[in-house]
Amino acid sequence: MHKIFWIALIVVTALGCRHTIRDGGHLTPPPYRTQEPAAVERTSNATSIERTDVLPDLGAPHSSSAEIPESRAPRDAARAVEEVNGQLADAFFDYDRAAVGPDALAALRQDAALLLPILAEFPQIKVVVEGHCDERGSAEYNLGLGDHRAGRAVEALQEFGMPLGNLEAISYGKERPQCTEETESCWRLNRRVHLVLRLPRATE
Fold it and tell me: Which residues of 96-110 are buried (b: 16+ CB within 10 A; e: fewer)?
């Protein structure tokens, strides 16, 4: 009887030790240890996807007006003609003379300096060189005198770099006075060469 008890005790003890060794040796890892890496991996993947889905901040789009300053935008030829026509100086002449004096030469030089950049930007623009006279003398004589004055002015403008192809001489004689009083100071204002910019006609 005692022998059977001791045999049974030894068997129970051996079975308990085997179970303890298997568990202590981690032959069967606990369930929570197998789940933890998977959970970490899912979190890592989610973080990676979230970061790749975020677009970089490129800032607010710029408008075309901001990229091209207004001061550098191309000008309209018609507006350029209108602006410059109000800035050109007249060249004045002595009575019954077509020679370009120092004052007239200085005015034409000033006009050429103003016109050359405009013609470089808009080569289609024409510069009309008008010859004018005071009211004394016949209409026919003054037409010829105005033509001589316009011709001399064209020669001076060429010397200052103006291209001949953009210059057009015309005489109005005494037909377009800018002053109508019968005084020397008024007549002097009418003995002039006046420059006018214009755009070419459609037929030109």
Answer: eebebeeebbebbbe
